[in-house]
Amino acid sequence: MLAVVLVLVVVRCDGHGTPTAPDGTHGPGTLAADPAHADSSAGPTPPPRPLPRSRPTSVRIPALGIDAPIMGLGLDANEELETPPIDKPNIIGWYKGGPTPGEPGTAIAVGHRDTTTGAAVFAGLASVKPGKKIEARRADGRTAVYTVDRVKVYDKAGFPDKEVYGPTRRPELRVITCGGLFSRRVGYTSNVVVFAHLTATREPPRTATPDASRTAIPEPSRTGVPEPSRMGVPEPSRAGIPESPATATPESSRVVIPEALRPAVPQAAQTLDQFPQAPGRLFQVLGPR
Fold first, then answer.
1. Which one, of 204, 170, 225, 193, lies nearest residue 42 by Cα?
2. Does domain 51-202 have CATH number 2.40.260.10?
3. Which tens digits make up the pLDDT trace of 68-85?
4. Per-residue confidence at 15, pLDDT binned at 50, 70, 90?
5. Nearest Cα to 152, choosing from 172, 134, 176?
6. Which of 93, 134, 150, 244 is the most exposed place for a label (fewest CB within 10 A)?
7. What φ, ψ does residue 179 adopt, rounded to 5°?
């Protein structure tokens, strides 16, 4: 079964997923302004400042667990709104000839209720309650947040095109899918329409620019290599090893080499004579100075 076939003005969902409309009908961009409908669901809190134009990228309805990508939809040769591909039931279509998220006017989003393979993105749309949020992310990083005003089910034979598609002064949103009864001969008998208006906007998260002192090459004290005093080898005074004889060793504990034995202890020059061809060995014997 295929759902969500939105047609301009009088919306129909036939059994084959083909949009149909009576002769002489027109799309949402061709309706005359209706002053009485300019602010159909005004609330106590004024809406935020409208956003400039920027294409939508995804729609999120937290109450229904929906977080779906968006594709732009246009009008076909019969001035009827295109529908998302049948083989991509979880994509939402946004009428690109109308306002983008957060722009003044009536924006239109449509999606399938189900297809021949099972439930689709808007299977539970009719159950969303007033007061719930619809978040439309934009290409510029901003998010337009709409609040649901009401949910209506209209028979396709008496679809109120001006009420649904009519222009508004403030940013509003209509989310549409199929509803009512289904038959293979005529498809769904009705359409579910969610009315919402803009109540908040979110700016994209800011990325902090690092200071000069926070470059990729950290300062020595901030590197992974600890300072010498913090190495795994503790300092002499912290390792249980007595300090050098010149400072910590008492006079009585010093070892005195008798004069007769002192020639056996080589001096540095004698060591060089013993290893004339291996200066590196001297470094090994005496250690670094």
1. 170
2. yes
3. 999 999 998 888 889 899
4. very low
5. 176
6. 244
7. -160, -170
